[in-house]
Structure formats: structure tokens, C-alpha cells
Amino acid sequence: MLLKSHETGKIDLKIGRAADFYGPRVKQSGIGSDFFKSIEMGKATNVVGNIDKKHSITYIKDFARVLVTLGNNENASEIIYHVPNMEVTSVRNFGKAIASTQYRSSNHA
């Protein structure tokens, strides 16, 4: 329905696509709030799939900024935009980086 409205010129449609989200208030994601709570408590976390395979991850606030930019840009001529992600890493390495950052932050606060 939206694509048809775009094709007929009724609306200017932009679609932003991203990988798995993480960040403030993200709950329904493989790397959502439960993932971070487990790391914060020093416990194992449940994830779907192979935690050592490379995975694309999108910070939710970066995704929001891109969507706002697309919505306000009349010169954006494409319909679908793939939002840039952080460097591809494994979920295990991402978790280790988060744990290391939290450790440093808590010891240097």
C-alpha cells in the first residue's frame, strides 16, 4: 500500500534498514537489554545462533538519526537505504568489549 502510494506520487517514501539493534530501551533484540544485564552481572547470556560468527550490529540512536535525516532530505531519491553499522564482529567479541568497557568505567569512576 505504501509503495503504491509512493509510485503514484501521493507520498515520498523512504525505508531505512538496519541490523540487530542495541542501545537504550532496546528489548526485543538478540543483543537487547537482557544481553547487557547479563554482562553487567558477570553472568552468561543467551543468544540465538553461533556467537563466534561475524554479525552486523546497529546502535539504535545512530539508526534514529539516519531515519530523521532521510525524512528531512528531499534530495534522497532512493526508496530503500541500508543504514551503516559498526564494524562487523562476533557477538562474543562484542560482549567482551562491553564487559571490558563496563569494567574500566566502574573502576575509574
Give an overview of the whole structure.
This protein is an alpha/beta fold and 109 residues long. It has a single domain, classed as NAD(P)-binding Rossmann-like Domain (Rossmann fold). It contains four helices and six strands. It has helices spanning 2-7, 33-40, 60-72, 91-107, and strands spanning 15-17, 20-22, 54-55, 57-59, 80-82, 89-90. The strands form three sheets. A two-stranded parallel sheet has the order 1-5. Helix 2 (33-40) packs across helix 4 (91-107). The model has no long low-confidence stretch (mean pLDDT 86).
Flag low-confidence runs.
none
Order of helices and strands: HEEHEEHEEH
Instruction: Compute the number of strand runs.
Output: 6
Number of helices: 4
The neighbouring-strand order within the major sheet is 1-5
CATH topology: the name is Rossmann fold
CATH superfamily: NAD(P)-binding Rossmann-like Domain
Categorize the overall geometry: elongated
Biggest pleated-sheet summary: 2 strands, parallel
Mean pLDDT: 86
CATH class: Alpha Beta
Task: Using brief descriptors, characterize the structure shown.
109 residues, alpha/beta, Rossmann fold, two-stranded parallel ribbon, 4 helices, 40% helix, elongated
Quick description:
The protein is 40% helix and 15% strand.
Topology:
Layout: H1 2-7, E1 15-17, E2 20-22, H2 33-40, E3 54-55, E4 57-59, H3 60-72, E5 80-82, E6 89-90, H4 91-107
Parallel strand pairs: 1-5, 2-4
Antiparallel strand pairs: 3-6
